[in-house]
């Protein structure tokens, strides 16, 4: 019973449910049932599994221990921390994090440690520590009655307002915002226009670009808009200014590079689901459109965009397992790789939650390129500022 007590204590210390823990350590389809038997002492726990369990998440891979940071930043709408990783790699220190989803908080805390504020709408901007860069992959919400003449009132009730009020109060030197590619065309361009005009009204430069994950080394056709700005008052920027976005290296990609060699049968979709996929695809074909499930092989250059709904049926990315075999979904670890997350990144939630989290996250290599360009530009602008002030 000692082993049973120890694995229960370890799971509870991590704050994980039986389902989360069994999925996290890679047990099969009935893994949660097996785990309950282990915890109850009804079935002997193999030594190799015991060691794997007790070694799981015993350290925090991205703990914020930088004592003399090159810069400070905050992570808003943080998700599982995909935007944070590259900025921390460059010597930055995260001084404030906000994420409302409790399951994303769980993944974030196990990987980064520290405290996480919940709903950003309930956070007083004056209580946020001083920082240099604001990071935020904010949700895109419709802007009703939007127009610059209304001042801040036209953005109240939307999450962009929370970014705006924090920038207005704290005056960071720079910001990086991320959103879906469609943001620029939403409401005939009015939504993006309001965002840009409000940021410019705060006396910040605003530059944007759509970047594709597949051009930065990960095999995914994921396009996102990135908005970068710098404090024109602090840096003495006069007139028009445009940030130079990183040039995509166009690294050749191959899906096989991120696929696992051995995959549990539980990721193979059921016969019923597969037949439904094929039927719907045929119906769309008769209507003259290309909608329906998408099948990829290890030789595919890239996949479709991974979405938060991937857990439902996996239709946007199914992996061909050969003639006579039903296709399978990606594993959570493969989803992490598809987004460019490092191998040491811990996945401490159930498969369903993991799919949602990685689908909602960012392509880390794209952020890494942006982080390098932004920090270099901050240094360049600082040099010019010092020259002017001499």
Fold and architecture overview:
This protein has 390 residues and is an alpha/beta fold. Helices cover 36% and strands 11% of the residues. It contains 13 helices and eight strands. The strands form two sheets. Strands 2-1-3-4-6-5 form a six-stranded mixed β-sheet. Strands 7-8 form a two-stranded parallel ribbon. Strand 1 (71-76), helix 5 and strand 2 (92-97) form a beta-alpha-beta unit. The longest helix has 26 residues, at 364-389. The relative contact order is 0.13.
Main sheet properties: 6 strands, mixed
Which regions contain 5 or more consecutive residues with pLDDT less than 50?
Answer: 143-154
Number of strands: 8
Strand content: 5-15%
Cα-atom Rg, whole angstroms?
A: 23 Å
The rounded distance between the terminal residues' Cα atoms is 72 Å
Shape: globular
Average the pLDDT over all residues and give the rounded result. Answer: 90
The run of helices and strands is HHHHEHEHEHEHEEHEHEHHH
Which class do the helix and strand fractions yield? alpha/beta
**How do the strands line up in the largest sheet?**
2-1-3-4-6-5
Number of helices: 13
Give the fraction of residues assigned to helices. Answer: 25-40%
A few lines on this structure:
This protein has 390 residues and is of the alpha/beta class.
């Amino acid at each position: 019973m000692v082993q049973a007590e120890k694995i229960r204590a370890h799971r509870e210390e991590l704050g994980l449910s039986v389902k989360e823990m069994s999925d996290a350590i890679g047990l099969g389809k009935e893994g949660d049932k097996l785990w309950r038997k282990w915890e109850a002492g009804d079935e002997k726990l193999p030594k190799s599994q015991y060691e794997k369990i007790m070694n799981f998440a015993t350290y925090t891979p991205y703990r914020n221990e930088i004592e003399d940071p090159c810069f400070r930043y905050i992570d808003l709408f943080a998700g599982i921390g995909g935007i944070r990783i590259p900025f921390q790699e460059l010597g930055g220190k995260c001084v404030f994090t906000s994420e409302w989803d409790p399951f994303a908080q769980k993944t974030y805390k196990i990987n980064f440690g520290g405290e996480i504020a919940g709903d950003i709408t309930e956070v007083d901007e004056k209580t946020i520590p001083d920082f240099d860069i604001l990071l935020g992959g904010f949700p895109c919400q419709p802007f009703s009655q939007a127009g610059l003449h209304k001042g801040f009132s036209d953005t109240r009730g939307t999450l962009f307002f929370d970014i705006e009020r924090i920038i207005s109060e704290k005056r960071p030197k720079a910001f990086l915002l991320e959103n879906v590619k469609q943001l620029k065309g939403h409401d005939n361009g009015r939504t993006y226009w309001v965002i840009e005009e409000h940021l410019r009204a705060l006396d910040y430069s605003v530059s944007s670009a759509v970047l594709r994950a597949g051009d930065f080394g990960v095999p995914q056709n994921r396009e996102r808009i990135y908005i970068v700005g710098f404090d024109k008052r602090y840096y003495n920027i006069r007139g028009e200014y445009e940030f130079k976005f990183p040039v995509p290296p166009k690294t050749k990609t191959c899906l096989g590079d991120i696929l696992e060699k051995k995959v549990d049968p539980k990721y193979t979709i059921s016969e019923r689901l597969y037949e439904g996929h094929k039927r719907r695809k045929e119906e769309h074909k008769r209507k003259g459109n290309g909608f329906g499930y998408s099948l990829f092989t290890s030789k595919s250059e890239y996949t479709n965009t991974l979405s938060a709904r991937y857990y439902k049926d996996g239709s946007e990315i199914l992996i061909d397992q050969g003639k006579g075999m039903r296709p399978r979904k990606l594993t959570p670890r493969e989803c992490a790789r598809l987004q460019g997350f490092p191998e040491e990144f811990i996945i401490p939630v159930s498969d369903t939650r993991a799919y949602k989290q990685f689908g909602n996250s960012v392509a880390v290599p794209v952020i890494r390129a942006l982080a390098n360009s932004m920090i270099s530009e901050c240094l360049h602008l600082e040099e010019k500022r010092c020259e002017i002030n001499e």
